[in-house]
Amino acid sequence: MSKSYSFLLNLGLSLSQYEHVECLLGLGSMSETSRMDAFSDMDFFLIVEKGYKQAYIDDLSWLALEPIVFKFKNTKDGCKILFSNDVFAEYAVFEKEELPHIAFTQGQVIYAKPTFDLKWIDPKNVPVNKPKSVDFLVNEALTNLYIGLKREHRGETASAFTFIQVYAAGLISELFEHVYTSKDVLKDPFVSERRVENRYMEAFNILAMMKQGYTKNRASALAALDFLNNHFDLNPAMFDAIYSLAK
Questions:
Q1: What is the pLDDT of residues 5-20, one digit of tens each?
Q2: Is residue 128 part of a domain?
């Protein structure tokens, strides 16, 4: 059991003594415990009675089972927290009436008041990664390589890095499912590249060539272009333009 999950279970026990707390819902790896490990963060929703949300946002005494050494209010509903025992938490506080309008995936009930209707935590707005066509992924990646290399020639290395090693490489990673056999690993509905190395055994080596670092934009672009050319039919004019810029 991870340190974060143990902390969350203890938090549930503690919150059972709070009159206005209705539910503690574990999310992410705090729900999908099969992929939980020593590096998992403590992600959760705290659901409180109507009229008490702001009180639980402003006063964190309910959360301080360990000393809080860092706190950052990253949304109007919650915070990112680091505890002295090196547990990192990201959470939000809601009233149950808000939940039908919030995008989240199925969670695990850590604590629920006996009178709380669990139907409230049945996700109504489950995020879905809409599939992109191969044509879009290939050609969007090509244009990102082209733009990135032109910026590299202008001396805009940081922007070139983003277009080549982030945008284009990210799009190409979405093409892996059309090239390689995928393992049965849970996809993240929010971020498509999460666990890509676990889904495809080839991913690490391929992406290592496409993401060679800040000073290796041209080499990274050539690796990306080579991958696309080996697996898909590319527009010859765009291929030549990118190859010329990268060389």
A1: 999 999 999 999 999 9
A2: no
The DSSP bridge pattern shows strands 78-83 and 88-95 to be antiparallel
The separation between CA 158 and the C-alpha centre of its own chain, rounded to angstroms, equals 23
- What does pTM read for this prediction? 0.70
24 close to 46: Cβ distance less than 8 angstroms: yes
Among 90, 105, 89, 100, smallest CA distance to 32 is for 105
Burial status of residue 203 (CB atoms within 10 A of its CB: 0-12, 13-18, 19 or more): middle
Closest residue by Cα to residue 160 from 172, 169, 151: 151
Which domain CATH number covers 239? Answer: 1.20.120
- DSSP class of residue 108 equals E
Burial 53-72 (b: 16+ CB within 10 A, else e): beebbeeeebbeeeeeeeee
